[in-house]
Amino acid sequence: MTKRDFYEILEIEKTASAEEIKSAYRKKAMKYHPDRNPGDQSAEEKFKEAAEAYEVLKDPNKRARYDQYGHQGVNGTGFSGFHDINDIFAHFSDIFSGVGGSIFDDFFGGGSRGRSRTRSRGIAGSDLKVEVSLSLKEIAEGTEKIIKLKKYKTCSTCNGIGASSEDAYIQCSNCGGSGEIRQVSRSIFGQFVNVNSCSACNGEGRIIKEKCPDCHGEGRLRNDVKIKVKIPPGVSEGQYIPLRNQGNAGIRGGENGDLYVYIREKRDDNFIRDGDDIIFNLKISIVDAIMGAEVFVPLLDGKTTVKIAPGTEHGTIIKVKDKGIRHLNEFGNGDQLVKVHIVIPKKISSKEKELLKQLGKMDNFKPVGEKKSEKSFLNSIFN
Predict the structure, then answer these.
(1) Are 177 and 204 within 8 A, CB to CB?
(2) CATH 2.40.50.100 at 128-265, yes or no
(3) How far is Cα 170 from Cα 209, in angstroms, rounded to an integer?
(4) Is the distance from CB of 61 to CB of 78 less than 8 angstroms?
(5) How far apart are CA 295 and CA 305, in angstroms?
(6) Measured between alpha carbons, how far is 167 from 294 in angstroms, rounded to an integer?
(7) Neighbour-count burial of 113, counting CB atoms closer than 10 A to its CB (0-12 exposed, 13-18 middle, 19+ buried)
(8) pLDDT at residue 214 in the model
(9) In DSSP terms, which residues pair with 341 in a beta bridge?
(10) What confidence score (pLDDT) does residue 111 get?
(11) Which of 24, 131, 171, 285 could form a cystine bridge with 177, CB 3.0-4.6 A?
(12) Residue 305 and residue 294: Cα distance in Å, rounded?
């Protein structure tokens, strides 16, 4: 398959500086990060593609060879792309981890899915999913929420081991303490070894002789808990924040699961969200549209005035700059877009009707291009 141009992948010019290359890669990595696109194979491929482009262009020597010879110029440098997501996280640790240096720290809770977990005895706890509903104002500014849920926590009596003490464990006689059962089979093609988890001890290599009286050997108890989660500004419906090790506690010292906090947007009475912009529908009278006016409009954080220019048409957009939603993990805000709706009265008095008839006879109230001898729009209504 033909590879795409590395500069095209990162959407930068060939004269881009090292800082511009890094910034472009950060944006691509954020857009296609696996934690933001769970199960999306296309996004994962683009994530790998961006990493491959950055790996070459960030290195002055590789970049020079690429500029001169294209992809063939870097094929012999010992780099053949990334085949595993975890390789990317490990290779670019300066971007994906570290205090203040990670572009995912704020949104993904200080970690990234590529980090490895240490192996331990016991059975890993399950992941949990919860939803948090946010107002548009909370989304725009960021907020902190206290989440209440039931989950398994480590038993405080036995500190999670499930036994009355460490001495209350004995070695599993079925697997000899390895936690594995090996079965050797032979065929004309040779010898094969099948390795399976020991069913007697669930792969732990040991069995409890005397269980903890509180958790009855599980090493965990179900409790009501409260967890504080920081929501960064700019999140969207359907996105989630993973909180590492905040899911169910594992059984008998197994790893904790993760907690995934999914974002839900509450309906707002005044505004409609459009990306990081917000739309406010402003109703004005036909008189204000013709003569112009200065009117108050609400903001997410207060109110302001906007000027309606004389002759404003229905559907006109007035932009209130930087009064929208803050960009996710970036500087700056979207805008508030005030969309003008001219309200036509459904019922009018006889006096108002007469005044409109008089206006309809005047040239300024005829559509552009209409001959003076032709009837105006207002005349066509009232005659």
Answers:
(1) no
(2) no
(3) 6
(4) no
(5) 5
(6) 81
(7) middle
(8) 94
(9) 283
(10) 43
(11) 171
(12) 6
Give the separation between CA 293 and CA 316, rounded to whole angstroms: 14
- Strand, helix or coil at 221? strand
pTM value is 0.59
CATH of domain 6-96: 1.10.287.110
SS3 letters for 78-132?
A: CCCCCCCHHHHHHHCHHHHCCCCCCCCCCCCCCCCCCCCCCCCCCECCCCEEEEE
φ, ψ of residue 312 in degrees (nearest 5): -65, 135
pLDDT by 10-residue block (mean), the chain, 383 residues? 84 91 89 77 88 90 87 62 51 44 40 42 88 96 95 94 88 89 76 83 87 93 95 93 93 92 95 96 94 95 95 95 92 94 92 88 71 49 47
Q: What is the helix, strand, coil percentage profile of the chain, to 5?
A: 25, 30, 45
| Res 186: pLDDT | 74
Provide the angle, in degrees to the nearest 10, between the axes of the packed helices 18-32 and 41-57.
170
Contact 107, 329 (CB under 8 A): yes
* Three-class DSSP category at 26: helix
Q: Where are the domains of the chain?
A: 6-96, 128-265, 268-344, 348-383
Q: How far apart are CA 333 and CA 173, in angstroms?
A: 64
Quote the pLDDT of residue 68.
87
Rounded distance, CA 86 to CA 29, Å? 14
Distance separating alpha carbons of residues 383 and 380, to the nearest angstrom: 6
Q: Give buried/exposed letters for 231-245 (b at 16+ CB in 10 A, else e).
A: bbbbbeeeebbbbbe
End-to-end CA distance of the chain: 71
Give the domain 268-344 fold: HSP40/DNAj peptide-binding domain (2.60.260)
